Structure formats: structure tokens, C-alpha cells
Amino acid sequence: MNMRNKIVAGNWKMNCDISQTYELLDELKDSELPEDVTVIVTPPFTSLQSANQALVDSDIIVAAQNMHQAANGAFTGEVSAAMLNGVGIDTVILGHSERRAMFWETNEILAAKVNTALENEMTAIFCFGEELGDRKSDNHFNIVKEQLQEGLFHIKAENWESIVLAYEPVWAIGTGETASPEQAQEMHKYVRGLVADIFGNEVAKSVSILYGGSVNPANAKEIFGQEDVDGGLIGGAALKAEDFIAIVNSF
Ligand SMILES: O=C[C@H](O)COP(=O)(O)O
């Protein structure tokens, strides 16, 4: 039996102002959510504190979509780990492909962000995944290995308690073209094997690996049914309460 945490995280990206945040959270709060699934929402920075307050009586966790690696300083427009902690946020998405592609986040920068998250006792949802060209040229395993080796695998075995992995093939994000359940399983198994090689079987068996990329209520059950898929990181479908709730209930 799979004893790993089942997790469904909604990545709201740059969507939802404060009133839309309350609206969406009201619907989620009022819904039936399974007790054995950890549900996470990641509103934009401007809604984090309010979202946390709105969910004070709920098990839904509020997380941030990004943070800067430095403790403080002249980094106009950026937000630190301590600032997130200060409004009750202790989970953060790091390395989303949109951050890598549009905001030039390299594996080296991400390694520093991972360190900052760990130093601040935060859980990091570490994203990785290949682009379409990598898959077409059969280089997807190498790319993923490189992203993990350079961005994450410098941590200590005990740090894995604070890490959730999220495989997001870039070609499946927001495109409606999801990876097949077999493709997801193949990559998740490969990644779990990499973790086992370096950090041992116990760590590999206990880390949750989420799949992200065009997950919707129609395909979630089959994807989540794969042996090494422990949940999802949901983009577009996380913005519609009905769809997100259906996905959370898909295990
Ligand atoms: O973080 C979420 C992913 O980018 C997936 O987005 P999507 O579900 O809209 O394809």
C-alpha cells in the first residue's frame, strides 16, 4: 500500500484579486474534501494573508508561488521567506517552469531558494520537467536529472521531510495536452529511483511526487491511479472550485 501523502495543490498563478480569492475559498471551504488528501492553494502574494485568515478553521493549506533566496535587501519587487513566515505561510512552490522560462531562474538560483526554504523551516514544492524538444529528442530523462541534481540533490537526507516533488512537463502545461498516465508513471518512477540511488530507499518511498500539466476532472483519476503519482499540481482547473474539488476527490 502506498503510505505517502496524497497531495493536490492548486497553483493559481497570476489570477484572482482579493474578492475573487474570497469567492473561490468560500466554495472550497463549503465543499466535501477527503480527509486523507492534503489540499493546498497558492493565491498570489496580495491574497496570502487574507487567504490564511479565511482558512483558519479549515485543513486547506495556503502556500506561496515563489520567494526570493536572500534574507532581505535591495531586491525591488521580491518577497523573502521571513515575510511569508510572518503572514503564516510555510509552504512555497519553487522552480515552476514559468519562473524558469520567464524569470530566468536557473538550477543554481533554485538551489539557493531551496536552502532558504529549509533554513526557514518551510516545505518546498520543487518543480521540474522537460520541454517538448527535450522529449522529442529523447533527452527528457537527462534534463530532469540535471534539474534535480543541480537544484535539489545537494540537500541532506533528513531535509526530504520538507520536500514535495512536482513533475511538470512544460509541453503539457496549459496546453490541454496532458502526459499520458504511462508517461507520468515512467518519469515519476525514474525520479523516485534517482532519489533512492542518492538518499536511500526510505527517503524515496516517502517523498510525494505530484504530476502537473493539464490535469482536469476527466483525467485526474487515471493519472492519480499510477503507482508513483501521489497527486497533482493543478493550474487552470484550480481556478474553478467545482473542477478543483472534483480533482481532489479523484483518488
Ligand atoms: O502549476 C501548475 C501547472 O503549471 C499546470 O498548469 P495547467 O494545469 O493549467 O496545465
UniProtKB/TrEMBL annotation:
List, in alphabetical order, the Gene Ontology terms for molecular function in this entry.
triose-phosphate isomerase activity
Positions of the catalytic residues = H96 (electrophile), E168 (proton acceptor)
The listed locations are: Cytoplasm
The catalysed reaction is: D-glyceraldehyde 3-phosphate = dihydroxyacetone phosphate
An example of a Gene Ontology BP annotation on this entry? Answer: glycerol catabolic process
InterPro entries xrefs = Aldolase_TIM, TIM_sf, TrioseP_Isoase_bac/euk, Triosephosphate_isomerase, Triosephosphate_isomerase_AS
**Record-listed E.C. numbers:** 5.3.1.1
Cellular component per GO, a single term: cytosol
Q: Superkingdom of the source?
A: Bacteria
Q: Which CDD domains match?
A: TIM
| PROSITE patterns the UniProt entry points to | TIM_1 (PS00171), TIM_2 (PS51440)
Q: What class of enzyme is it?
A: isomerase
Sorted alphabetically, which keywords does the UniProt record give? Cytoplasm, Gluconeogenesis, Glycolysis, Isomerase
* Its biological purpose: Involved in the gluconeogenesis. Catalyzes stereospecifically the conversion of dihydroxyacetone phosphate (DHAP) to D-glyceraldehyde-3-phosphate (G3P).
The record's annotation in HAMAP family points to:
TIM_B
Q: How does it assemble?
A: Homodimer.
Family of this protein: Belongs to the triosephosphate isomerase family.
Please state what the protein is called: Triosephosphate isomerase
